[in-house]
Amino acid sequence: MKNETIELATLIAQKLAERLQENFSVMPTLTLAQCADQLGISQEKVRELCMTGELPHIKLNKLYRIKPSDINNYLNKHYVH
User: Fold this and answer.
1) Exposure pattern of 26-61 as b/e (b: 16+ CB <10 Å)?
2) What is the C-alpha separation between 50 and 80, in angstroms, rounded?
3) Is the pLDDT confidence value at 81 over 90?
4) Which of 4, 10, 27, 28 is 20 to 30 Å apart from 19, CA to CA?
C-alpha cells in the first residue's frame, strides 16, 4: 500500500510539473531557413506559402516564425494517399 501511495504521489507530481511547464514555456517556432530545411524547399517558397496564407506563421517585423505543428498540419493537408 505504501509503494502504491508513493507511485501515485510521484505521478501526480510529474503531471503537475508538466502543467506548470506548459504555462511558463515559450511556444517553439522555426525560422524560414529551418522550416525550408524541414520541408526540403527554398526559403522563398516558405515565405510565399506564408504570404498566401497556406502556412500559418507569426511575423515579427520582417522575421517569420512558424510553429512545428503548423508545418505538420500543412504536410497532412497536402498528403496524397
Assistant:
1) eeebbebebbbeebeeeeeebbebbeeeebebeeee
2) 21
3) no
4) 4
Distance of alpha carbon 5 from alpha carbon 16, whole angstroms? 16
Q: Residue 50 corresponds to which cell in the numbers above?
A: 506564408
End-to-end CA distance of the chain: 51
pLDDT digits (tens, 9 = 90+) for 22-67: 777 677 899 999 999 999 999 999 999 999 999 999 998 989 999 9
Contact 74, 49 (CB under 8 A): yes
pTM of the model: 0.66
| CATH numbers and ranges of domains, the chain | 2-77 (1.10.1660)
- Rounded mean pLDDT, 13-17: 85
Cβ(66)–Cβ(50) below 8 Å: yes
Amino acid making up residue 45:
K
